[in-house]
Amino acid sequence: MISKLFIALFSFVLLYFAYLAVTTTPILLGEVDSLTYHIPMAEAFAEGNFKDLFYIPRGLGYYPGVGEIILSLFIKLNIPLGLFNVLGLVLLFFGCKLTARVFGLGRGASLAFATTFSLLPTVLRLVLTQTIDIWLAVFFLFSLSLLQKPKRSISYFLKIGFSLGFLVGVKYSGILLMLALSAVYLRKVLPMLTARRFIAFFVPFVILGFTWYARNWIITGNPIYPVAFLDWQADPNFHATDWTSIKVFLEPGGVWLMIQSLISEYLFWSLAPLLVVLIYYYSKIKKQRELLKDLMPLVVLAVINFFIFLPQPSLPDMQIVISNMRFVYPVMIPIMLFVFVVAKRLGILKELTIVALLSSISVLPQFDYRPKLIIAWLIFVGITLAVPQKILKLLNIRKV
Fold first, then answer.
1. Which of 77, 160, 162, 324 is least crowded, fewest Cβ atoms below 10 Å from its Cβ?
2. What b/e sequence results for 384-393 when a residue is b if at least 16 CB atoms lie within 10 Å of its CB, and e otherwise?
3. What's the rounded Cα separation, in Å, for the pair 192 and 42?
4. Are residues 344 and 322 in the same domain?
5. Which one, of 239, 242, 260, 266, lies nearest residue 363 by Cα?
6. 176 CB contacts (<8 Å, ≥6 apart)?
């Protein structure tokens, strides 16, 4: 029954945002990053322009463009741009569900994990924008699920090439996240590597990921333009990295500002890092080595990703820090997954699932009251639950 509640809850939120996506426009919403460079980049790509992008302010047109390639398809097909991250939300949900199953969670627990992460305030805040952080999380999840269970097949290495290529090609931080995943999981994959499998991985990885860096090197002499690094020069008007999260941490009151923002955006799950520490010491005190078996790579990955978060742009301002909690997705995904798997091993998964459900429900009061949408949702849920099992079997659909 509780699985049906998670599905019903996610379907309502999806319907709500899909409605808003087709009844509003990016200009009406006024999200700065979307209007400043995400949409202009996508418009340029839709016109076949991948090089002459200096007209986009501060050199931002030379950011990696996998996300904007996808957005350009919406422009070409005249699909409302608000649906860009609605699609991202659907893929995030299924990416979370897939990853949870790979780590040994059952159908109900994987739905709980997928719903509770997908409905976090820090995720829903971006759904109507054209920013690419939800997509970054999607590619990170698919890469994590693939690396957790490597296979000796050409198709597997092709998939991981696409997944890591998308990750590296969607955002500069994707390079660091790829290196973090490699540091934790590469030793599981290397023994399976052959020349043919390497080629299957390398081709999509380079085309999707490093093409953007090669373009920047050729045009500007800096593969990560407009960002400065070592001898590579930044765009003269690019100042986003003048303030970073580590500088905010070190400011007076900065730690408390970060904690407040984490609670605001992750609700109950802001306690997840503390839970990891408590679980670790519990396993030591009770001498339950099996409790953390095969799970420490998730903790190591989260720690590395936290250090990747620290040098990312920020300002000592509550609104900015809250917005930048989206940069913490790659930290919280492995931590929350760790907590779910440990709860299963401790036999308290039902209790954690109830907490996850309450956390997910708590975002609903933020939504506008739209009775027509609620009626449409109730009809959809009612029909779905009322469809006889035999008909679903004939359609090869499993009843929710």
1. 77
2. beeeeeeeee
3. 38
4. yes
5. 266
6. 308
Residues 62, 322: Cα–Cα separation, whole Å:
26
**Sign, CA torsion 284/114/384/361:** positive
The size of the chain, in residues, is 400
Q: 302-329, pLDDT tens digit by residue?
A: 999 999 999 999 988 999 999 999 999 9
Overall pTM > 0.90? yes
Q: Do 381 and 30 touch, CB atoms closer than 8 A? A: no
Give per-residue pLDDT as tens, 340-363.
Answer: 999 999 999 999 999 999 999 988
Over range 215-232, report the average pLDDT: 91
327 neighbors 125 (Cβ within 8 angstroms): no
Structure tokens at 265: 């955006």
- H/E element, 295: none
Per 3-state DSSP, the chain is made up of helix, strand and coil in percentages (nearest 5) of 75, 0, 25
Residue 384 and residue 236 share a domain: no
Q: Cβ neighbours of residue 148 under 8 Å, at least 6 residues apart?
A: 99, 102, 103, 185
Work out the mean pLDDT of the chain and round it to a whole number: 91
- Total number of domains in the chain: 2
Q: How many CB atoms lie within 10 A of CB 329?
A: 23
- For 238-250, b/e burial (b = at least 16 CB within 10 A) is bebbebbbebbee
Range of the domain at 182: 21-367
**10 is a domain residue:** no
Instruction: Report how far apart the first and last C-alpha atoms of the chain are (Å, whole number).
Output: 9
Sheet strands (E) in 223-323: none
* 113 and 87, same domain (yes or no): yes
Same domain for 104 and 233? yes
287-303 per-residue burial string, b: 16 or more CB within 10 A, e: under 16: eeeebbeebebbbebbb
> Do 239 and 346 share a domain, yes or no?
yes
Task: Report if residue 363 sits inside a domain.
Answer: yes
Q: Could you tell me if 162 and 71 are in contact, meaning their C-beta atoms sit under 8 angstroms apart? A: no
pLDDT beyond 50 at 399: no
